[in-house]
Amino acid sequence: MLLKDIQFLDDATRPAIPKLDGVTEAQKAPGEHLRMIHDHLRENMVVLGRLIERASQGKATAEEIQAETEELVMVSNYRRFGTLCGQYCQFVHGHHSIEDYAIFPGIAAQGPAFKAIADRLQAEHVVVHQLLERLIDALIALADAPGPSNFEDAVTVFRALEKVLLSHLHYEEESIGDALGYFEIGV
User: Fold this and answer.
1) pLDDT value of residue 114
2) Dihedral angle over CA of 181, 171, 15, 126, nearest 10
3) For the stretch 79-116, what's the b/e string if a residue is b when 16 or more beta carbons lie within 10 angstroms of its beta carbon?
4) What sign for the dihedral angle of Cα 94, 35, 130, 100?
5) How far apart are CA 140 and CA 67, in angstroms?
6) Cα(118)–Cα(175) distance, rounded to whole angstroms?
7) For position 26, what pLDDT does the model report?
8) How is residue 83 annotated by DSSP?
9) Treating both helix axes as pointing N-terminal to C-terminal, what angle do 112-144 and 62-70 enclose, rounded to 10 degrees?
């Protein structure tokens, strides 16, 4: 089973989120921006779900799936810049650099609790990417040979990615969203 070794799906294994007192509306704005970027990733999951259905019905070729997944924000930017979560598009290419070089280190510098969160978020990015790559491979296999076995494989990987990614996005938003403005990180 794909999820058995992914312990971070259990919130109890994630670092606790420190309470930040007195966060203003202005300080919440960077976290809202992060949430908007993540909404695009959530939308990509809907597209992938539709691709699974089309491929299972023989209505999408391997070439079409490859082309459509290349256009997905989370795929194209991972391949272009090296990390999945937090990527949006070329317009926000700087977001990747900020996350890797300023956001996570900036969060980690706020003390041991935030360092644990930053380390965890980076580790989760790796798992999300691995599942994304497995899903693309499963979709291509399904398009090449539509059938119950390949369909089940694609659905299994998709559901694992969906669960992991949505859980990760939520945790990232909750754990560092307010902290971004509160500590003036990347602002």
Assistant:
1) 97
2) -110
3) eebebbbbbbeeebeebbebbbeebbebbbebeeebbb
4) positive
5) 11
6) 9
7) 96
8) -
9) 160
Tokens representing 83? 């990390």
Q: Say if CB 180 and CB 31 are below 8 A apart.
A: yes
Q: Please give the single-letter amino acid code of residue 42.
A: R
H or E element at residue 186: none
Q: 30 to each of 7, 53, 74, 181, how far by Cα in Å?
A: 28, 36, 20, 6
- Chain centroid to CA 157: how far? 15
pLDDT along the chain (187 residues), means of 10: 68 93 96 90 78 73 70 50 32 48 88 96 79 77 78 85 87 95 85
Q: Which is nearest to 96 in space by CA: 83, 114, 79?
A: 83
Query: What is this structure's pTM?
Result: 0.76
Hunting for tokens 């790796």 — which residue is that? 126
In angstroms, the CA 65 to CA 123 distance is: 28
Phi, psi angles (nearest 5°) of residue 85: -70, 140
What is the residue type of 100?
A: D
